[in-house]
Amino acid sequence: MLPLDGVKILDMTQFLAGPYCTMVLSDMGAEVTKIERFPGGDDSRRLGPFIDGEGYPFAMPNRNKKSLALDLKSEKGKEIFYRLAKEADIIIENFRPGVVKKLGIDYDSIEKKNPSVIYCSISGFGQTGPYSQKGGFDIIAQGITGFMRMTGEPNGKPAKVGIAINDIAAGATAIYSILAAYIHRLKSGEGQYIDTSLVDAGLAWTIWESAAYFGAGEVAMATGTRHRRSTPYQSYQAKDGYVTVGAGNQKLWEKFCEQVINRPEWIDDPRYKTLMDRMDHINELEKEIENIFIHEPMQYWVDKLDKAGIPAGPVYTYDQTLSDPHVKARDMIVEMDHPKLGSIKTIGIPAKMSKTPLEIKTPAPWLGQHTTEKLREAGYSDDEIQLLYEEEIVFNKYEKTEEEVHE
Fold it and tell me: What Pfam families does UniProt report for this protein, alphabetically (predicted)?
């Protein structure tokens, strides 16, 4: 049994923040029905690479879900949504603020039909405030939260974090908020509304940066791979690449000097004696360490650092990461069969739970794959379903029901 077995979620999200949230909840066992417009569906379906007409990027955050393609602007489409919403535990949307109210499917409208519903909105800037009506993708949020000024090399151009960090931050924030609301509902029977945003969620992760600003007025700027408050804690160039070193406290620093770089005299060197001394001379320290590291390959230094008990590792390219034996041993790459993409690989589940291990059970659906199934569950007869298809209220990209697919 999975933690969220029996929990029903209606997912009206697209791209990454919302789909990441519902992916994790589906891994926990929730039944996630993805409500998609047609004929395009979730905008991430347009992203390549493509295999047999289906996009690989869509397949990554949409596993374990079912797709119902529905015209929410029509009265009949809205009625279908209302039927599903009455039975839903959780509804999640990431339209621009105001859109769900205009459609008549906002929290206030749904709460009248389902008082215990948990309804979560994820947007660029949130439902209130002077920027609430602005569109907000990850790159916009990275700019406004200051991330692009904190990332990259000093005095360089603004740089985006290598992944969609604000999208994932918002998705993760929605996950724990929804779970907290669900625990509250178990105790009280009350549902509630949750409002989070890419900007709020990303800003909440600026722990050290906010401490420096509130405590001393320091504005966080780009530091390359350096830590803002500790050194040696960064990557250093070796003969064939870069090595990360985490020797930020005094004990590890002394081990580093004695057992790794053979410079015991640095322990009492006035430039490097204390952490504050080392921070004051960080440029000089980096050059001196790299003058040593450059003579040997990455693995040589990683092995020495490991032997000394100092956290360290190579700086990989992404293909090297996915080929690493530790990543594979942790089941972080999972293979599964997709009805159109064929055999695919996806990123595995990061939390290894002893009593309720989470599961990747099914691949991402094609657009409208489960439309007929969900309509039957909502009480529609086969004749009514056929009429809904004919009236273009609902849609199935490949014009097959789930039963036909599995025959």
Answer: CoA_transf_3
